[in-house]
Specification:
The chain is mainly alpha-helical and about 250 residues long. About 70% of the residues lie in helices and about 5% in strands. A two-stranded antiparallel sheet has the order 1-2. A hairpin with a 2-residue loop joins strand 1 and strand 2.
Length: about 250
């Protein structure tokens, strides 16, 4: 029985919202899981803050832990001035983390396994960095492309590299890192899990042989749980590093 590990990433239309310019606007499974992620985050934060207690419960503890984690991330990378970006960084971290965790549920859909989603999030960070940097610093923002202490002979080359890195390499790598990790991890999980099912059809010998891929599937699932959090952290910490360039341009 052949199993296609790519089927889990298929976007399917649930219903049509309308048409704009002859193009169909559809509500898909990807949209549904995005809404589900936002709903879970909203319930967590509302539940954690609605009934605040001196001795926090589980929801309040998790909400406060998430808040403090992102606050420490921003202050360590940008400084106190970076707290104005807390809503952005917190939203990015929680959305990616929760959607990654939901995607680990069997037969669920992983939103961040599509480059269009991770690319949109990376472009959001890129344009905020660009526009805020110009708004706050004016032309001084372009000091970002002129590192201090570089010999004049190689300065034009370094400036060119810095420009390419800012406008191309950073946003592309920002989006590809999350997309590639989630895509590869889920493909590996599906492949090893399919081995268990196929070997199970071969009788007793097949079930004995399936122990090894079953163990690998369990280990990969545990690893994917860690990666789900780590990739959200990496995406958020890189956003902080890029936002620091807007707040404090120059090297």
């Amino acid at each position: 029985m052949a199993v296609d590990p790519i089927d889990q990433f298929q976007i399917t239309k649930l219903f049509t919202i309308g048409h704009i310019g002859g193009q169909e606007i559809a509500f898909t499974n990807s949209s549904a899981y995005m809404f589900a992620s936002v709903a879970v985050i909203s319930l967590l934060m509302i539940g954690g803050s609605a009934r605040r207690q001196l001795v926090p419960g589980r929801f309040q503890s998790l909400a406060e832990l998430s808040y403090e984690f992102v606050v420490s991330m921003i202050r360590s990378r940008i400084g106190p001035e970076g707290m104005k970006f807390f809503p952005l960084v917190f939203s990015l971290f929680m959305f990616i983390c929760v959607s990654n965790l939901i995607g680990l549920i069997p037969y669920a859909f992983t939103v961040s396994s599509h480059i269009i989603v991770t690319g949109a999030l990376a472009l959001l960070v890129f344009f905020i960095v660009l526009f805020y940097g110009l708004y706050k610093n004016g032309l001084k923002f372009f000091k970002l492309f002129v590192p201090s202490g570089v010999p004049i002979g190689i300065l034009p080359l370094v400036v060119l590299i810095e420009i390419l890195a800012f406008f191309f390499v950073k946003p592309v790598s920002h989006s590809l890192r999350l997309f590639a990790n989630m895509l590869a991890g889920h493909i590996a999980l599906k492949v090893f899990a399919s081995f268990v099912g196929m070997l199970g059809t071969l009788g007793l010998i097949g079930w004995l042989a399936a122990i090894f891929p079953l163990g690998l599937t369990v280990a990969l699932t545990a690893l994917e749980l860690l990666i789900a959090f780590l990739q959200a952290y990496v995406f958020a910490i890189l956003a902080c590093i890029y936002l620091n360039d807007a707040v404090h341009p120059g090297h």
